[in-house]
Amino acid sequence: MSVLTIATQAFLDQKPGTSGLRKKVTVFQQTHYLENFVQSIFNSINAPQGATLVLGGDGRYYNRTAIQIILKMAAANGFGKVLVGQGGILSTPAASCVIRKYQTFGGIILSASHNPGGIDGDFGIKFNGSNGGPATETVTDAIFAASKVITQYQLVDMPDVSLDTLGVSQLGAMTVEVIDAVSDYAELMASLFDFTAIRDLLAGGFRIKFDAMHAVTGPYATEILQHRLGASADSLMNAVPLEDFGGGHPDPNLTYAPELVSIMHADDAPDFGAASDGDGDRNMILGKQFFVTPSDSLALLAANATLIPAYRGGLAGVARSMPTSAAVDRVALALNIPCYETPTGWKFFGNLMDAGKVTLCGEESFGTGSDHVREKDGLWAVLFWLNLIAARRQTVAEIVREHWAQYGRNVYSRYDYEALPTADAQAVMAHLLASFATLPGQQFGKYCVQHSDDFSYTDPVDGSVSTGQGIRILFVDGSRIIVRLSGTGTEGATLRIYLEAYDVDVANHHLDAQVALAELIQAALQITQLQQLTGREQPTVIT
Ligand code: G1P
Ligand code: ZN
Questions:
Q1: Extended beta strands in 338-442, E state
Q2: What residue's CA is closest to ligand 1, atom 6?
């Protein structure tokens, strides 16, 4: 086997964001670009000689090419074995599951999640550690530092490996094992949920519609929902993964999944609708003419957890990202369990789960999960909902409304302003930081500011501190406006405004969130001066 050492020059923009390194495909296609980042990972993670890695991606354009490159580099860098999903495919939660199940040193996941794919779309890569979770900031900082001083990388000079047939082959001294991408994950799901109860629910005429958005979840949903749980074939839509996601934006929300949303709003709508994103870690939950906000979904799953076999013994604790609504906090209070508030990004939940402090976690950005893996998990959330409906035998809307009646409603919405000129977005943030001294006590309609700050977090497990995690404007009545810059966008800057108002009055619970939040939205525009500073009248996406 001949190992080639290739001289290279550092790219200075390989800083991992909220979830790994995400760039346009054309950026990754530059000579040495992917190789530099992969070698920087290998230079930073101190893998012992002969270690095992997991490798797979969401199947988007450039996935196969990248996998061949990474395999050859892993072989040259002394790895003993790589487990690759068949066809180069592994959903993000499935990759996490495989890393844990086979106790590998870690894994490399190729995905730009919910960002569009195709030759003009995005690509991404991240490293997950042996717990199955995204590398902590300490590791991603080390990778970035390594990427800035890299001068060479190594790969073996050998032909491509076949990714389509299950089984073992050799790449020099390294074994490549192509594994079934679905079965380990499907078995894990069957061990957590009451599949018999869900099967009975579906057999009894409960109609579902799952939109895989032409992304990675298609094969997983087909195996689990259709083959194992008996859902009809027409319960699944867009279930064939495509390299460009059929030209769509594989983000399960009311804007980017319009086909599913219109099916769920028709007179003869199914009883339950759901969708997942590019790499299978996000979920959207819908009832008949009813949308469940991800923040409410997290709170509901926590409140109903003991109906699910895996969580029958109760929850150790829960965690939510800072911008996620405080609905789950109220459930935690009632259950007398701890609730942690972390910065945005799943990587902050890993330590809490590893230390046994939390069982369920979630983000407002359509991410929910538990300690069964160390990633958020789209199909897991769908199965959790189906299991709890099978146990309660109520509609989605009834379940949510009962929850609001008991705990109050955290009315919630997020406004995204995508692809802003970076300077404009920074001007908004600078304006907010400069307003901290004068905001407290100011009245905006019915909202009076109590406190404002820039969120920072001290990890209770390893003591690491993360600063600058988003601006919080907290009102006297518990309502909040949060403003932060996205760490996953690949064009200019994306500014997110998160709005949350707490309402215990059941008489208001029928209101559409946009109506219920109208006054808070005005307050947000006034406080941020967004329209004046960016010239943008409307958000790009409202969720
Ligand atoms: C977004 C979401 C965040 C999520 C991340 C990865 O990051 O807001 O909650 O963890 O995608 O799916 P952002 O672009 O806001 O940095
Ligand atoms: Zn994703």
A1: 339-342, 360-363, 367-370, 409-420
A2: 19
